[in-house]
């Protein structure tokens, strides 16, 4: 039998953004994290650091987390200048310490954008996404009782594309990566996941008009086709959805301009 060997422990220096509250000035603070297993996640490493801080009577580092499985999008961190860290297609909670060399300095900060104000330390307020979703990212028409799965035929390529859009977890990496703090990738995914399906057609126009309007109102910037958004997305959502949303938006604007004033804004299928 071959004896199992434990992985070599590593030590790193952390430069963590500390900020007491939304109106407070923030700064980077250095911490030493020693004897870490390379198989622990970055969030587990922060847990270890916080345990040490609490033992010393110091304020632990505030960071958001929930599922720790790359599903919820809560663990939104900028790691060494990249939203969610050095790898593509993973969230911050799926970044492991083996991604960093022994003795490395790791810089950790919150997602930064005007519509994402810092609540404390590494936690940003991303409720702006909730407001965009509430503006039209739903189906309000009565659909009756649940029907058979094959009652409304949907071509498989269309269903697959809708599922690709629905993979968005609303983490905000697209905003953090964009030099304009654009939310176009998020909004286009939420618009497309419903706009591609038959159930989403009655409100297709009002959905895209209202969600884009709310996005602009909240202060997100415009897309300039740099595609940092899709590169940083932990679900690798394609920037092609932005082009799809732009087509839907232009079409919805045109159709709304042809409607009588009393009916302006009423939903209409494309």
TrEMBL record:
It comes from Lacunisphaera limnophila. Residues 10-112 form the 2Fe-2S ferredoxin-type domain. NCBIfam families: PRK07570.1. One of its GO terms (biological process) is aerobic respiration. Pfam families: Fer2_3 (PF13085), Fer4_7 (PF12838). InterPro entries: 2Fe-2S_ferredoxin-like_sf (IPR036010), 2Fe-2S_ferredoxin-type (IPR001041), 2Fe2S_fd_BS (IPR006058), 4Fe4S_Fe-S-bd (IPR017896), Beta-grasp_dom_sf (IPR012675), Helical_ferredxn (IPR009051), SDH/FRD_Iron-Sulfur (IPR050573), Succ_DH/fum_Rdtase_N (IPR025192). GO terms for molecular function: 2 iron, 2 sulfur cluster binding; electron transfer activity. Its cofactor is [2Fe-2S] cluster; [3Fe-4S] cluster. Residues 159-189 form the 4Fe-4S ferredoxin-type domain. Belongs to the succinate dehydrogenase/fumarate reductase iron-sulfur protein family. The lineage of its organism: Bacteria, Pseudomonadati, Verrucomicrobiota, Opitutia, Opitutales. This is Fumarate reductase iron-sulfur subunit.
């Amino acid at each position: 039998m071959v004896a199992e060997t434990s992985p070599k422990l590593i030590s790193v220096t952390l430069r963590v953004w500390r900020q007491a509250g939304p109106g407070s000035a923030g700064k980077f603070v250095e911490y030493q994290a020693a004897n870490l297993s390379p198989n622990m996640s970055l969030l587990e490493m922060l847990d270890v650091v916080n345990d040490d801080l609490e033992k010393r009577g110091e304020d632990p580092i505030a960071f958001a987390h929930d599922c720790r499985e790359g599903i919820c999008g809560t663990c939104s961190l900028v790691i060494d200048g990249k939203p969610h860290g050095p790898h593509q297609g993973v969230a911050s909670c799926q970044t492991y310490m083996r991604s960093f060399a022994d003795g490395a300095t790791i810089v950790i900060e919150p997602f930064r954008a005007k519509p994402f104000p810092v609540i404390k330390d590494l936690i940003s307020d991303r409720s702006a996404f909730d407001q965009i979703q509430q503006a039209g990212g739903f189906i309000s028409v009565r659909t009756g009782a649940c029907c058979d799965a094959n009652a409304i035929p949907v071509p498989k390529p269309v269903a697959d594309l809708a599922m690709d859009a629905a993979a968005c977890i609303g983490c905000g990496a697209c905003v953090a990566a964009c030099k304009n703090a654009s939310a176009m990738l998020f909004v286009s995914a939420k618009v497309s996941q419903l706009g591609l399906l038959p159930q989403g057609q009655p409100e297709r126009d009002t959905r895209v008009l209202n969600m884009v309007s709310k996005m602009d109102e909240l202060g997100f910037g415009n897309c300039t086709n740099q595609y940092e958004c899709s590169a940083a997305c932990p679900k690798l959502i394609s920037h092609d959805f932005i082009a799809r949303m732009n087509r839907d938006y232009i079409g919805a604007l045109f159709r709304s301009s042809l409607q009588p004033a009393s009916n302006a804004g009423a939903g209409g299928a494309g």
